[in-house]
UniProtKB/TrEMBL annotation:
Coiled coil: none
Lineage: Bacteria, Bacillati, Actinomycetota, Actinomycetes, Kitasatosporales
Region of interest called Disordered, as start-end residue ranges on this chain: 478-505
Protein name as annotated: Succinate dehydrogenase flavoprotein subunit
Keyword Flavoprotein attributed: yes
Presence of keyword Oxidoreductase: yes
SUPFAM superfamilies documented for this protein: FAD/NAD(P)-binding domain (SSF51905), Succinate dehydrogenase/fumarate reductase flavoprotein C-terminal domain (SSF46977), Succinate dehydrogenase/fumarate reductase flavoprotein, catalytic domain (SSF56425)
Length: 661
């Protein structure tokens, strides 16, 4: 057995975005020695990119708002597939989490009378997004980081070391969750720690801990056109799967309607929904505001039928219905896709999003400073005088680790918790804008709290299995042993030379994966294309076994990507298999061959599990599917929550059996 450094902690949080930092603060405040580990620099997590705001029914902009209205909007947005308990906790607790941020130093934009300002977003009945211009994520991360530093200063005063009870391991990646051996199968055995490598030196180390919180964000880097940052390779999703925890809702991938489409180098970069929330309109190449043609039946009563009515809503929302540009994201993305397909798109394959004719230049520059800067710098477009060209971009994954709503505990693996984008259930089939930042805080706090309680409740720390450390090390070193690759200099992988054929370039494999997912499992899906996708994924899995790199373990991005490929291939297979199985269209899953929403699917979750237990996964034939899919009925929605809706509306969503109950 090679020597690998080990450190003992009570709680390990994987990820330093909003969910991870909030979890770490809670675990540390509960008295646990807490380690946070993140792939990027501290403060650089994907959360920092969040623009529009954080949804919480504080009622500052409209006194009618409350948690029940927020709950209703969230369930409607997710087409009732959301785990109702998560949606309830989220709606109830979000305001407290925002106020708490303020007490920790966050400086939100204000209303004229000095309260936290709230803006409109798609699918939210009232202006609900607390924001800091269009740089809300930056303020959120800054505030959480500041809180962490404050706690570390407290520890230094009390214990003489800043990192005595809260330490950040930045630019370090976790590749395996380690478990105490306990019977056959991946689902048995308690969490014992995490196997990690330092990106700069390539050094391996183990963080031993009875509780691990996954807060690793999303999967967007498996798609070619995406708003997501480089970190979004589905690591937490894959770590959970490989540890024996199931994922749910993986067929639901959100394509944000408005990403940049030009120039090619920036294709996919997000154009925040605040542009539409603040009055921006969508037009096709004929100059028509086409969204009026795309209001689905379930939303007909709530949206304006004419431009005059829609425009009136911005000034007088009590007497007007909202414009259809503010439909939930899945509806707007499909509409844009249809317009482009019908030949009414812009020159670069998008449509036009215009604020220049809707607001004075100085208002645009004040309310949307990042968008103004982004278009000027990247596309040489001045959004105060001309429209933007926009089109759908892969943005968010609704699917994720199946968790207990109250405790964030992952199903089937004691000691594993998940919060934020890596967790599934909260958003159902489609997330409303602004509901992620609030989700991170509500469930990040819960995950930290319950991980701490769990760790404290054990009378014995689960022991790390040395064989698992050896296996994790061999797996991580494999890219240096691929045929045509070079030896890393120390500790060659145990299965060196096993794969046949030339070494594969990880960047080529990644590009092919992204292209396949974009073309075959993208915004509009067909049975035949998903079969094709599964075939291509099988081929890529075989080739990925030969992903080879040259050079050393010291900062070697090709090596890091080779390791990330395992994760992207696993989650992509989950998405493709679940998308093939769900024969209906709902939220972030649109089937060309099953275009309608089917009430019969309302209470069905598709559950993905790894087909081979932890030890066997590496030796299993990669040409065969790695994922086992099953159906699970969702828990019935609590009666008092159902009573928040009109019966007629429920009849559009619930199954006959649920309605008769
Ligand atoms: P992240 O913030 O992504 O953090 C993930 C962390 O995990 C990172 O620190 C990463 O380094 C680490 N990590 C990943 N894998 C590993 C590994 N293997 N080992 C160690 N560490 C690892 N939502 C809203 O509600 N409102 C908005 O206005 C909004 N705007 C957005 C704008 C853009 C451009 C984008 C892309 C998204 C936006 N979203 C918004 C969505 C929201 O930002 C994300 O869903 C959210 O930030 C996810 O937070 P998280 O804490 O789950 O993960």
């Amino acid at each position: 057995m090679a020597h690998v450094d080990r450190q003992a902690w009570d709680v390990v949080v994987v990820g330093a975005g909003g969910a991870g930092l909030r979890a770490a603060i809670e675990a540390r405040e509960a008295g646990m020695r807490t380690a946070v580990i993140c792939k990027s620099l501290f403060g650089k997590a994907h959360t920092v990119m969040a623009e529009g705001g954080i949804a919480a029914s504080m009622g500052n902009a409209n006194a009618h708002d409350n948690w029940q209205v927020h709950f209703r909007d969230t369930m409607r947005g997710g087409k009732f597939l959301n785990h109702w308990r998560m949606a309830e906790l989220h709606a109830r607790e979000a305001p407290d989490r925002v106020w708490e941020l303020e007490t920790w130093g966050a400086l939100f934009d204000r209303t004229a009378d000095g309260r936290i300002s709230q803006r409109n977003f798609g699918g939210h009945e009232y202006p609900r997004l607390a924001h800091v211009g269009d740089r809300t994520g930056l303020e959120l991360i800054r505030t959480l980081q500041q809180k962490i530093v404050a706690l570390q200063q407290e520890d230094e005063r009390e214990l003489g070391a800043y990192d005595a009870r809260l330490k950040v391991f930045q630019e370090c990646t976790v590749t395996r969750i380690l478990k105490e051996p306990g019977g056959p199968g991946a689902g048995s055995g308690k969490v014992a720690g995490a196997f990690c490598y330092e990106r700069e030196s390539g050094r391996f180390f183990v963080l031993e801990a009875p509780a691990v919180v996954l807060a690793t964000g999303g999967i967007g880097k498996s798609f070619k056109v995406t708003s997501n940052s480089w970190e979004y390779t589905g690591d937490g999703h894959a770590l959970a799967l490989l540890a024996g925890a199931p994922l749910i809702n993986m067929e639901f991938v959100q394509f944000h309607p408005t990403g940049m489409v030009w120039p090619p180098s920036v294709k996919g970069i997000l154009v925040t929904e605040s542009v539409r929330g603040d009055g921006g309109v969508l037009r096709n190449s004929d100059g028509k505001r086409f969204m009026f043609d795309y209001i689905p039946d379930v939303f007909k009563e709530k949206y304006a039928e004419t431009e005059e009515e829609g425009d009136g809503w911005y000034e007088d929302p009590e007497r007007h219905r909202r414009p259809p540009e503010l439909l939930p994201r899945d509806e707007v993305a499909r509409a844009i896709n249809a317009e482009v397909k019908a030949g009414r798109g812009s020159p670069h394959g998008g449509v036009y999003l215009d604020v220049s004719t809707r607001m004075p230049a100085e208002v645009i520059e004040r309310r949307l400073p990042s968008m103004h800067h982004q278009f000027k710098e990247l596309a040489d477009v001045d959004i105060t005088v001309e429209p933007m060209e926009v089109g759908p971009t892969c943005h968010y994954v609704m699917g994720g680790v199946e968790v207990d709503p109250d405790t964030a505990a992952a199903t089937g693996v004691p000691g594993l918790f998940a919060a934020g984008e890596v967790a599934g259930g909260m958003h159902g089939s489609n997330r409303l804008g602004g509901n992620s930042l609030s989700d991170l805080l509500v469930f990040g706090r819960r995950a930290g709290l319950h991980a701490a309680e769990y760790a404290a409740s054990l009378d014995r720390r689960p022991a790390v299995d040395p064989l698992q450390i050896d296996a994790a090390e061999a797996e991580a070193l494999r890219p240096f042993s691929a045929e045509g690759g070079q030896d890393a200099g120390e500790g060659r992988g145990e299965d060196a030379g096993r794969e046949t054929g030339p070494a594969e370039n990880p960047y080529t494999l990644h590009q092919e994966l992204q292209q396949a997912m974009n073309d075959l499992v993208g915004i509009i899906r067909k049975e035949s294309e998903m079969f094709e996708a599964l075939k291509r994924l099988a081929d890529l899995r075989v080739r990925a076994r030969r992903a080879g790199v040259e050079g050393h373990r010291q900062y070697n991005p090709g090596w890091h990507l080779s390791l990330d490929l395992r994760n992207m291939l696993l989650v992509s297979e989950c998405v493709a298999r679940a998308a093939l199985e769900r024969e209906e269209s709902r939220g972030g899953h649109t089937r060309d061959d099953h275009p309608a929403m089917d009430r019969g699917w309302r209470n069905i979750n598709l559950v993905c599990e790894v087909a081979h237990p932890q030890g066997e996964a590496r030796t299993a034939d990669p040409a065969l599917g790695q994922i086992r899919l099953s159906r699970r009925e969702t828990p019935p929605i609590r009666r008092d929550l159902l009573e928040l809706f009109e019966k007629d509306e429920l009849a559009k969503y619930l199954t006959d059996e649920e309605l008769s109950r």
